[in-house]
Amino acid sequence: MRIIICENYEELSEKGAQFFESQITLKPDSVLGLATGGTPVGLYKNLIKWNKEGRIDFSNVTSFNLDEYYPIAPDNDQSYRYFMNENLFDHINIDKTKTYVPDGLAKDPDAECARYEELLAQKGPVDIQLLGIGRNGHIGFNEPDTTLNAVTHITSLTESTIEANARFFDNITDVPTKALTMGMGTILKSKKILMLVSGKEKHEVLCELLNDDISTSNPATLLKVHPDVVIICDKAAYEG
Ligand code: PGA
Q: Can 110 be counted among the known catalytic residues?
């Protein structure tokens, strides 16, 4: 794993966006793996700005998001589909029919997960996968556990994740308790992985990721088996 330490969140967001700019410049029909949460918002702002300036052309790009709450409607303002439209897709020249997010309204969640995995197999592999990290080490919604899932699956959120995500909701009881998420194997199939880590509340989990052995109790440590992982963090996360 390679680590890039930035002065602050703004620098992290710019460096992260540069990886995407280079990727799309080198391969205009790139398959991007995208993430939600607070951390990638600054990176997406840069992509929007550079698209408007003509520096990046998304017209041939395909994207797959890591996860979606379940059950949730795509037009619910808490859904990850809504988040992606608001924070990126509505502001760039991407073909929305080529932006994939698991269907939070699927009647049969297992069938939806199998469909998503199959779609990734057909259109992938993902060229560059963007990741955040949960304070408990989750990536996507692969939560710490005694075992982890390889493929896209339905999962329950841990208390720690529900508490962390409550900041986006009026009330903690409104946070969905389940989600559909790419599995660890799905994520590890990406050619390149770019993880963003910002803020001192991520210091402890970043230290664990950098220093500890691979363990299912910190799913992000599994990234150590991947040949091309770049972690971009700010000083607050690195120094605590
Ligand atoms: P955050 O979420 O960017 O909002 O901290 C990261 C995550 O939970 O993966």
A: no
- Separation between Cα atoms, residue 26 and residue 145, nearest integer Å: 38
* Residue 99, both tokens: 């932006």
pLDDT digits (tens, 9 = 90+) for 44-77: 999 999 999 999 999 999 999 999 999 999 999 9
Ligand 1 centroid – CA 39 distance (Å): 6
What pLDDT, in 10s, does the model give residues 113-142?
999 999 999 999 999 999 999 999 999 999
Active site residue 203: no
* All domains of the chain in start order, with CATH: 2-239 (3.40.50.1360)
The DSSP code sequence of 117-182 is HHHHHHH---SEEEE---TT--BTTB---SS--SS-EEEEPPHHHHHHHGGGSSSGGGS-SEEEE-
68 is catalytic: no
11: annotated active-site residue: no
- CB 186, CB 150: distance < 8 Å: yes
**Probe ligand 1: pick from 68, 133, 161, 203, max atoms within 8 Å of CB?**
133
From residue 68, how far is each of 93, 105, 158 by CA, in Å? 23, 10, 15
Q: Active-site residue among 138, 208, 218, 234?
A: 138
Q: Which mutation among 34, 36, 39, 209 tests ligand 1's pocket best, with the greatest number of atoms within 8 A of CB?
A: 39
